Each structure stands twice: as structure tokens, then as C-alpha cells.
Amino acid sequence: xxxxxxxxxxxxxxxxxxxxxxxxxxxxxxxxxxxxxxxxxxxxxxxxxxxxxxxxxxxxxxxxxxxxxxxxxxxxxxxxxxxxxxxxxxxxxxxxxxxxxxxxxxxxxxxxxxxxxxxxxxxxxxxxxxxxxxxxxxxxxxxxxxxxxxxxxxxxxxxxxxxxxxxxxxxxxxxxxxxxxxxxxxxxxxxxxxxxxxxxxxxxxxxxxxxxxxxxxxxxxxxxxxxxxxxxxxxxxxxxxxxxx
Length: 245
What we know:
By secondary structure, the chain is an alpha/beta fold.
């Protein structure tokens, strides 16, 4: 049983889906530093290959995790049992009702839920007892707002799904990490030239007086993997963002 404050993943294998940038990349790095072997997956083959070389990955596979056929094939092709699977693929969806395309809205729901359920379903028999599945949600859409109907529904629904999966997949552990704003390439692409203003605002207002970065989320992720008393729970890592009005 892992009880030390410092994560120890020696002799274990960690699968990270969405590992070529941001939270997934940093989690793969920290898992490797904690002694794990890593199996990597992401959509961009060039970035993925570079990360695989950096981390001396056991293997790497380029595919879109929203493609259920490819996701199932990925797990079926794993050559041996693994200890932990982390899914970071997918991003937030902001769609005001006034301009909403219903087909796009349905697709957003389907892709997000299918990736989580598909990972849970297809990984059965591939994760060692007392290993874990770890998913990434968020805290930013817990409060209602214009354009957040989809994002907030998924945000509040994910903890219930994770709790149920933890019971159905036991003794495999299932948990959810819920970041607020994290300074990632995805955040940069969403905010564009407003990124620095958002950073400055958070540095001034967050209780921690700094912006949350991928390493913060990754450190929590690796701890959850190494602590085998944790399952069925949601762990916030937002620097106190949801405490602000």
C-alpha cells in the first residue's frame, strides 16, 4: 500500500490518452519521474513521437479518442496489463442557446460521455487489480452562465458517473480530477490575445496568488494513482477559483 507523501510508481505502467500537450504531457512526465513506464496516445503524431522519445515510452499510438472503434482497438492491442489509465482528451464546449446548432450540441455530449464510458468499458481486463482509471473534468462551469448549458451539465454530471463506475469496476479505482483555469496550450488557443489579461486577473484574485499550471494538476493525478485508498471521488485543483464571486 502506498502511504508515503511522495508518489512511488516503480514497476507500474501508466497509460495517458491525450499525452502530447498540457495536463496529459505533464502527467506522463511526472509518472515517469515517479518510476513508471508510460504508454502514450494522442491525435497529433508528430508531437506524440517527440514526447515518446523524450520519455522513452514503452509504446505510443496516434489516434482520436473520440473514435470509439479506434479507442477499443487501442485497449485490445495493449500487449500486457497496465496499472493506471488517464484520459485527458476532450475540451470544454461553449454554446449560447441563441446561436446553438443542435447537432453540434448533441455531438458534444456524445463525444464527452462516449470517451469516458468507452475508456471504462474497453479497459476492463487490462487494468491490474487496485489499479486506477483517472478522468479530467473541471470546476469552471459549476455556476450557470450564458453559453454554459452543455459545459455545466457535463461538469456536474461527471462526478456521478465516476462514483458509479467506481462501484462497477471495483477493485479498479476510478477518480476525477477537476481543474479550474489551467495555463495550457488549449487555454491559449481559446483566449487568444486575452490570455495575458486572464493570467493577470487570476494572479490578483486567486487565494494562491498565482495561476494554476499543468504541473499542479499532474502532481495531484500521480498522487491519486499511487494512493490506493482513493476511489469514486472528485478532486478539485483550481487555486480557489470557485470561491470567488
